[in-house]
Design goal:
The protein has 19 helices and 18 strands. The chain has 546 residues and is an alpha+beta fold. It has a domain at 453-544. α8 packs across α9 (256-266) and α9 (256-266) crosses α10 (288-300).
């Protein structure tokens, strides 16, 4: 494997300082178990995402033709976070989550692009690692594809591009233009299968549809499988993830390496699913050891604590009332610390995990576009992928997604010549025991569920519900008529009273309209009789303690 799985003690050392400010922007770092070295690893270690050639990205101009596309100041408009500084892993000074893989000369995205947040509190920027980011993924990729197309079509722009790459001779420039034309065709096709019919805005993306489109359309070379990208969901928080029995909004993923491998294939990685793949079937760009390292880092990531010095003192008496209300009305779905764990007898290796709530989408009553979009979708297979499904020519999208990702992970593990013990560890020990006493992967109990996870650090994870349709916890605890029909996303100023982010209209923000299909803010009416104002504030005060 490309990198050793061993990580030095210096990287894993936990800073004893609760807060420290960088020299480049005055960002305050919360104490979450990571130090600067480990944060840098998480932000910039490549994972197998091949967005575009790294040397091209380094000189690609912005669509207006003024400055380089990868300039952190320019990428801020999409919600990227400026780097904390230049490092050995980030020599180009790219924003958080934009990583360079020198071995393959590619630049790509890492988990950090969508799962890192800067929160504004009293004029200060506070870094919350693992929190849902504010990235507008769809707008970023749309404009990147546009920048490539303009470079190909605008002669002056292309001349600058070629000169920056040292291709100044006629033959060199002609060869570069041919390569750029081929890449333009590729990225344009990619933009089509990712183009949203419902604009996601900041902090959301229809990840599952885009991943399945990437696998079923691009990697299989089957345009018939193209499906509308119309069910964006919020980026979830990453803390506790390695401990949870299942993850994702529709909790169908248990194996961490399959979860992380699928994420890579969804953000510009690829796997060989072509009909004539032969011996190269299921070989992919995912970087196995790096993904395993990332999961190890996440085991050390602690939920952020409410900073009373910056965010306001917690009313302990009110919080105690809120705890009683939460216990009576919410704890049946949301597992809270100290967490109830699964029975080790149910795991082949005697392991135990944090239980999650799994509620049918039709029972919780929230917008159902996301849940139904995956449940009703069918995928046409080809000669390579049909072998995963006993020769079936069409299979449910959920089965195709799980089968293709699992086969790609298995191929990567086989190519790395991992032992059985190593494979089990990479899969997070998520195995049950079959009737013959053999380990078998966890089965998903049901496919129509939505995850009700622990709410540690929930104050840093707004907007709320799976589709991000409710801006604050206060509104989430209110009946539908008490929830705003329109609000604006992209702001980072924390609402320390209602819990969420300031979501008033402001330049550069995204208008979120809950009347649009997929954006509905209905459902999650617990308790059915509703909370009054004082009760809502009590629950909020309790949640600040988590």
């Amino acid at each position: 494997m490309r990198l050793s799985l061993a990580i030095t003690a210096s990287i894993f050392a936990i800073s004893l300082t609760a807060h420290a400010e960088t020299d480049s922007g005055g960002v305050v770092f919360t104490e979450q178990g990571w130090n600067a070295a480990l944060r840098d690893q998480f932000y910039y270690t490549p994972q197998g995402s091949h967005l575009m050639p790294a040397d091209w990205f380094a000189v690609l101009e912005q669509p207006p033709g003024m400055g380089r596309f990868g300039d952190p100041e320019f990428l801020k408009k999409y919600g990227f976070i400026e780097p904390d500084g230049v490092s050995d892993l980030n020599t180009e000074g790219y924003p958080i989550g934009v990583a360079t893989d020198a071995a393959t000369n590619h630049v790509g995205l890492t988990c950090a692009a969508c799962h890192t947040a800067n929160v504004e509190v009293g004029g200060e920027l506070v870094r919350i690692d693992g929190a849902p980011g504010h990235l507008d993924f769809d707008a970023f990729f749309r404009d990147l594809a546009l920048a490539v197309r303009l470079t190909l079509l605008d002669e002056k722009r292309f001349e600058r591009f070629a000169a920056a790459l040292g291709q100044t001779t006629p033959d060199g420039a002609a060869q570069l233009k041919a390569e750029l034309a081929a890449f333009d065709t590729k990225i344009t096709a990619e933009a089509v299968l990712r183009r949203p019919t419902l604009a996601s805005g900041y902090g959301r993306v229809d990840a599952l549809t885009q991943i399945v489109n990437s696998l079923a359309v691009r990697d299989q070379e089957k345009p018939v499988n193209l499906y509308p990208v119309a069910a964006p969901t919020s980026y979830p928080a990453l803390w506790l993830t390695p401990e949870l029995e299942f993850v994702q909004w529709n909790p169908i993923a248990s194996s961490p390496i399959a979860r992380n491998g699928g994420q890579v294939l969804g953000v510009f990685g690829n796997t060989n699913l072509s009909r004539d793949a032969g011996e190269q079937a299921f070989s992919s760009t995912m970087l196995l050891s790096e993904l395993h390292e990332m999961e190890e880092w996440l085991t050390m990531l602690e939920p952020p604590k409410w900073d009373e010095g910056r965010m306001g003192a917690i009313d302990e008496e009110l919080a105690e009332q809120g705890e009683a209300l939460f216990s009576a009305n919410c704890s049946g779905c949301h597992n809270m610390a100290p967490y109830e764990r699964t029975d080790p007898a149910d795991n082949h290796f005697g392991k135990t995990f944090v239980k999650i709530g799994r509620i049918p989408f039709w029972k919780v009553g929230t917008d159902d576009v996301y849940s139904r979009s995956l449940l009703v979708r069918q995928i046409v297979t080809n000669e390579t992928t049909a072998a995963l499904f006993e020769g079936a020519t069409a299979v449910p999208a959920i089965a195709f997604f799980g089968g293709a990702v699992s086969a790609s992970v298995q191929r990567a593990m086989d190519d790395a010549q991992l032992s059985l013990e190593q494979k089990v560890a990479l899969n997070g020990f998520r195995f049950q025991t079959d009737e013959s006493g053999n380990p078998v992967p966890y089965e998903v109990p049901r496919f129509d569920g939505l995850k009700a996870g622990p709410l540690a650090g929930v104050w840093a994870t707004g907007p709320y519900l799976h589709n991000g349709s409710v801006p604050t916890v206060y509104e989430l605890l209110s009946p539908q008529e008490g929830r705003r029909k329109v609000f604006w996303t992209g702001g980072r100023e924390l609402d320390t009273v209602a819990l969420g982010y300031n979501s008033d209209a402001a330049p550069g923000r995204f208008r979120f309209d809950t009347a649009l299909p997929g954006n509905g803010n209905q459902g999650h009416y617990y308790p059915p009789a509703g909370f009054n104002h004082i009760e809502r504030m009590a629950v909020i005060e309790y949640l600040k303690t988590q």
